[in-house]
Amino acid sequence: MYADEMVATAQAMVTSGKGILAADESYSTANKRFEKLGIPTTEEARRAYRDMLLLTPGLGDFISGVILFDETIHQSTHDGVPFAEAIVTAGMIPGIKLDTGAKPLAGAPGETVTEGLDNLRDRVADYYKLGARFAKWRAVLTIGDGIPSRRCIEANAHALARYAAICQEGGLVPIVEPEVLMDGAHTLERSFEVTEEVLHTVFAQLYLHKVVPEQMILKPSMVIPGEKSSQQVSVEAVATATVKCLLCTVPAAVPGIAFLSGGQSEELATAHLNAMNTLFKGKMPWPLTFSYGRALQQPALLAWMGQDANVPTARQALHHRVKCNSAASLGQYTEEMEKAA
């Protein structure tokens, strides 16, 4: 019923030179960021913040779609236009976060499984009516002593596949997001080993649940050493390990890959994406682009600080970051772009 529409949507989401803005922070995550800056932790403050982000002039030149949180998709701009409608008017596609967060996996200390499958079919139908045309589900895997376990990897892969199948049944393109966290002291090699196992398992489950690869987007983490590792590596090494891992695990039929930033600094996340598209241009079956949250939003949030008078400056900061990452998705990003800003 929705097959052609979902194929078209998935392809549009990875249009050349465009990425996806993750603006789907939960109440608690948004409030924590606001609290640190002295911004009121109210529904209106969160609405005003999303208004500042989503109405940035020219955003649609570099962003194909926006992932929203449940609160936001039910809210409107300061002019009373529903956010989903405003996103479409700006030339972008509205999406929605469907998982309800990572919860402790029983009997597996230090590991989690993402929940949210209850009533998912009904929620997909409701969000489609509200204008969403794609969705997101994030699985979280931690590298540590003896983890992630096979049980944790398989539990999360199974949930991702069930979510994706229900989304496609209801007309939403699923973003499949298995995140291997940067937390820890693991090496690049260990990150590669875990990421490869996770992606193999995820795609085996997607196949088992009859998820159509042409109607989905993969949102993986990059293959990168733990932030506490004593063996940090070059931008080129991260780019090479990441692409090598993807080539070994991701079907060519997938329309595109949009990376999460995973706690990297704004400029480093951009540099890594650029290096992949520079070193491996013409050697990959899918485009590599971005689906960043904090790595796009943080400069704008710091410029905004909850003040209406700061909105133009904050929007300039967001515009700069999406422009830089657009260039990186084409292998055209340079340090001079940062200096110019």
Explain this structure.
It is a single chain. The protein has one domain (3-340): TIM Barrel, CATH 3.20.20. It has helices at residues 3-13, 27-37, 43-54, 70-73, 83-89, 120-129, 150-170, 188-208, 235-249, 266-279, 294-304, 311-329, 335-340; strands at residues 19-23, 63-68, 93-97, 102-104, 112-114, 134-141, 173-180, 217-218, 257-259, 288-290. A 6-stranded parallel beta sheet has the order 1-2-3-6-7-8. Strands 4-5 form a two-stranded antiparallel ribbon. A two-stranded parallel ribbon has the order 9-10. With 341 residues, the protein is an alpha/beta fold. The protein is globular, with a radius of gyration of 19 Å. It is built from 13 helices and 10 strands. Helix 11 (294-304) runs antiparallel to helix 12.
Low-pLDDT ranges: none
**Going by CATH, what is the homologous superfamily?**
Aldolase class I
Helix content: 40-55%
Shape: globular
Provide the structure class.
alpha/beta
> Based on the structure, what is the oligomeric state of the protein chains?
single chain
CATH topology group: TIM Barrel
> What series of H and E elements makes up the topology?
HEHHEHHEEEHEHEHEHEHEHHH
For the residues shown, what is the average pLDDT?
97
The overall number of domains is 1
Beta-strand percentage range: 5-15%
Name of the CATH architecture? Alpha-Beta Barrel
Q: State the end-to-end distance.
A: 46 Å
Largest sheet: 6 strands, parallel
Radius of gyration: 19 Å
What's the total count of β strands? 10
Helix tally equals 13
Q: Tell me, what is the CATH class?
A: Alpha Beta
Order the strands across the largest sheet as they lie in space: 1-2-3-6-7-8
